[in-house]
Specification:
alpha/beta, Rossmann fold, GMP Synthetase, Chain A, domain 3, 2 domains, five-stranded parallel beta sheet, 19 helices
Amino acid sequence: MPRTSVIRKTASDFRVAPNWVDYAETRNEFSWENARRELAGMPGGGLNMAFEAVDRHVPDKGDCIAFRFLGADADRVITYRELAALTNRFASLLRGLGIGKGDRLFVLSGRIPELYVAVLGSLKNGTVACPLFSAFGPEPIATRMTLGEAKVLVTTEQLYRRKIEKMRGSLPGLQHVLLVQEQGAQAADIPGTLNLARLLAESSDAFDVVPTRPEDMALLHFTSGTTGTPKGAVHVHGAAITHWATGRYALDLHPDDIYWCTADPGWVTGTSYGIIAPLLHGVTSIVDEAEFDADRWYRILQEQKVTVWYTAPTAIRMLMKAGEEVARKYAFPNLRFVASVGEPLNPEAVWWGKEALGLPIHDNWWQTETGGIMIANTPAFDIKPGSMGRPLPGIDAFIVARDEQGQVRIVEEPDTEGELALRRGWPSMFRGYLNNEERYRKSFAGDLYLTGDLAKRDADGYFWFIGRTDDVIKSSGHLIGPFEVESALMEHPAVAEAGVIGKPDETVGEMVKAFVSLKSGYAASESLRMELLGHARKRLGAAVAPKEIDFLPTLPRTRSGKIMRRLLKARELGLPEGDTSTLEGQS
Ligand code: ATP
Ligand code: MG
């Protein structure tokens, strides 16, 4: 397919009318007050995320499927009515244990129904929920639970025995452990724990949802740890307004959609868009309990008749790595919209979508701190491959520069590189970093939230990611964003993924070094290395192209799928690796 700089959209590109067709008009008409009116609210001005997500739909959509869990042995389907009853039982159970508003509940499990019930049930009780990746080792679990002042933990018997039992003594604040016991196994009583299934069965399925206020704390999320020690970001019930609006405008959710968000709830995407947003729109979500497998994933898209798919660049790169032959075994006639978040989406990946799935991939940008999608490519609008898209309704994004005194100023001229900033005030903005008030305060300048990402905005209002402020390479007076170099390398047919760092160099300051992993069917060799160096030089020019390329079987990445350039760099320079709690493959 010829690579053009714009992928034009025409009416024949969408099967259902997109929710957002006139960019400026919808933005002009939009207000957060009006968006809030789309939700039911609680008596007295309250707003409860789980009430909006679940109970609100019971009268009209009670029998519709909220979740379809694809388990190892069997699928499990939960309707909105069943979800309402189950989450009521969970909330009653918490109340019975004396756990109330503002208390903290952690979940450590795979993507099993109990996780979803626990998060939503907590929210109904006003209890703050924090799902963790089940693959975390005991130490990162203990650190997060201590920082988050966990009073309750929901986990499985197996995970409890492997990760919690021995360090339980180091968590004096932890009052209750609710265990999901292995199916079919004799429910052995493990000292100091409670049997979740038994307690749920004994609890009432009637519950008066706690009328939380929009500013009440709802969720705790830890950042991915890509640039350093993960930070705990505090989110409030009012965030549901952003989840609703972005589900509508960025993910284009329609009531009949079958939606699959591949993210784990241990990462903010898996909660905001794996639990809350799809439920707010009353759609059916697919949850795959297993880990990535190219064949399986294509089969899910096909067999489950997925219409809207939200995934991540790392998954797309892995599908690309597996080769197009795998994709060609399947067909996706139901799929109508594909979006991605988490890392820059290389133009090559956008095009791959068009070739393998029949649809381009729509990149969007946000962070744990923003709680929801802020900048996006959406169905009706042209895509410029490599760009994150444009700000959503209710979101004002800017490029800012700092002067010598550290004063922040908005840069109006297009195509100027600078830090990406957002005007504060959207409902899902984080309300603090746990135990780090100073860092929180430093993230703001006046009414601007400073994201720590570098970007530029073009004359059409599209935003282009350049790199993390921490990752940018300074070489012979040039500022080089790793993404640009990685994307150029990925255009080579042999390259599956690339990670680029700056390596200290006496003459140029920092020298560009790339690490690449190869697609199946290609082997590392000196001649391939020379070919890639030449390819990059031709594409990027000598000043920006990497001077060194190393081959790696895979690149180090976080559990949320982000390439950890800081680890590539530390390993290259023989420096300490720092916090590796979120490194994939570690437990
Ligand atoms: P930490 O803050 O702990 O270093 P993290 O920033 O990776 O980790 P997240 O909040 O999960 O933690 O990720 C948000 C970041 O991911 C963004 O700030 C940005 O750097 C990157 N990101 C997300 N989406 C995109 C995108 N579409 N294009 C480029 N970068 C993206
Ligand atoms: Mg971050």
